[in-house]
Amino acid sequence: MNEQIARGTRHDPAFANIGKGRLDQSLEKELGPKTGKALGKLGLRTVEDLLRHYPRRYGDRGRLTALAELRTGEHVTVIARVAGNDLRAMRNRSGAILTVRITDGTEELTLTFFGKHRGSLEYHERRLRPGATGMFTGTVSLYRGARQLTHPDYDTFDDLDDEFEAVQKVDWPIPIYPASSAIASWRIGKAVQTLMATIEASDVPEALPAAYRKEHRLPDVLTALRRVHEPHSPEDWRGAHKRFRHEEAFVLQTALAQRRAVSLAEATTARPPRAGGVRDAFDARLPFELTAGQQEVAAVLERELATSVPMMRLLQGEVGSGKTVVAVRGMLQVVDAGGQAALLAPTEVLAQQHYRSITDLLGPLAEAGMLGGAEHATRVVLLTGSMSAAARRKALALAASGAAGIVIGTHALLSEIVQIPDLGLVVVDEQHRFGVEQRDALRAKGRTTPHLLVMTATPIPRTVAMTSFGDLETSTLRELPAGRAGITTTIVPANKPHWVGRTWERVREEIDSGGRAYVVCPRITAGEDAGAAEDGFSDDVTAELFGLEDERAPRRPLASVEEVSALLRETPALDGVAIGQMHGQLPTEAKDAAMADFASGRTPVLVSTTVIEVGVDVPEATVMVILDADRFGLSQLHQLRGRIGRGTRPGLCLAVTAADPATPTGERLLAFAATTDGFELAETDLRLRREGDVLGASQSGRSSSLRLLRVLTDAPIIEAARSAARDLVARDPELTTEPGLAQMVAESIDEDAAAYLERT
Ligand code: ADP
Ligand code: MG
């Protein structure tokens, strides 16, 4: 049915918005203001919202819900049998009370109803007679030690309209919807059924091409909606779920494929390498050999930069695997070809660090026009939000005149005042902090579309890369440069004073033998709000990414930079050791000074927030103590740990925590201690938490359109959808043959844009 419509309307713009009218109708209009308002409280406003509000799970009339698992305060929907009831007058005041005991066969739960008099409760008493089964919903409370639901909403199964229906439906799975106290699950179910009765195939866009559905044996969209909302068997809803997973993957992959196609079609200036130029001079200066992995990636960059098709590449690699060096070579190739390159970093500390290490690596090659500058030299400038007006003016002038071959900065680079006229390559470091729109804002500065290299040290499982960065090709640096001595990680129980004491002794030993120590705290000052933004970027990104909200340890005072530095100054083991401080709220000069003092060894202990998480490079740092380690996500811990063991001496990471090893948090820390392989940790991390969060936080509001797709377990679906979507877009870039898909892609992009606007 749907295919016919699609075929019949091919190339006909009048039908481009097929069916959208009905789906956009408001629920208040369709179902009446009362139901509509109640659904609105769940965020459901349009017909489409409700149709896509899939049941959370399915109940079985024959199988009662395990009541022992209910937690106080939770809003629950349970299937249970009435064990007994008791209707009586209240002793101390006027009115009557009906208590109903419901059971799953072992545990009981009490339902309590209050009424003005017995008569007002008799209706419930009749429906809830012993032996009746039904669904009950309400918020679990505790009364005299017993769990109860007060005035629960309920629906008994023998209330079904007629006997025939009852017999027929007895085996059907019961949809249990994400509900709230505003509207019970079965009322949502009834609302959905009312709608479904009037929905036709032409009302709902079919996103999946017919051939694709056939190949993967997927029902069409209307059939799938029926089966998800009113399944006659578990196979029904399972088949529908499979279809919706494919649909979500296909829509997303099509959007990414189109994005990629549009980018690839843009004209880019080819930046071929030039023999004897600044890049060759840089290679000659490098104090080490590139690893085999670096050489491989370098060759790919050299080739891709040399063409007029824009490079769109993600370079991922372990912390310290040498991505930056490879990126600098690419930037210098562009400079050799007469262009400019920009490096976008997520924090000021990191931008400054890049500036310092790149100017160090370049030496006289970064001193064009200066005394002692080399023959092919260029200039490197830094642009951050906190620079003085004079310094900024100078940097802006160098960037705008083209004299600066390399422009490094934070999001300040995105400002319209910044001109980089011959921008040929944009390098984005630590991508997960930036949105697609931000990298595009920077790329828009070039006369022609610049090449793009995105670097991330957060190892990304393959399917996540395909989903979040599906418009990019991926390169991976797996090996670390030789001579790294490795890192050992130990969990230190915070409640064992002896262990904690030993921690500071170990720090002392490292310092006495020339090492440096980071001490990481979750907070800056005592009592301040946790998760305060550092350098304008919210650390909540990480919290979101790793679903920390759910399993954070019970609130207790957290270690803060200020308190801990004061304490360490009093710690006998660290007697005479100078202790520095670092956090995002320090003025730039203070940050610079703190890093410089730490690097030079003047303050061999640096107490810091996670502001050092990304990219900070002090090779002498050998030990890191992470306080309240349970407060951090796996990837964040991994990033932090990557700050040590960067030189030739082995690193030691001591993760101090009060978390019980038997909890999910404890498990996360054990996984952290067990391996330094970031890819393994990323996979573990996905397994330990709800995966949906990964995509949501990685770029934009996409999670809203990914309801059922699971990046870890649905890898085959994502791969199938990706390859089919790329083929389709290559054949039919405008999707004229698939109007339903075109419509859904357009909507998903609108959602992204809306999510972006909300964030900025
Ligand atoms: P990443 O950006 O991947 O974290 P960097 O490029 O900052 O890694 O490199 C980390 C450190 O290793 C730097 O001090 C860099 O100079 C050094 N380094 C990079 N490549 C090599 C190599 N092939 N051999 C030895 N040291 C290297
Ligand atoms: Mg780096």
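The CA atoms of residues 9 and 15 lie 6 Å apart.
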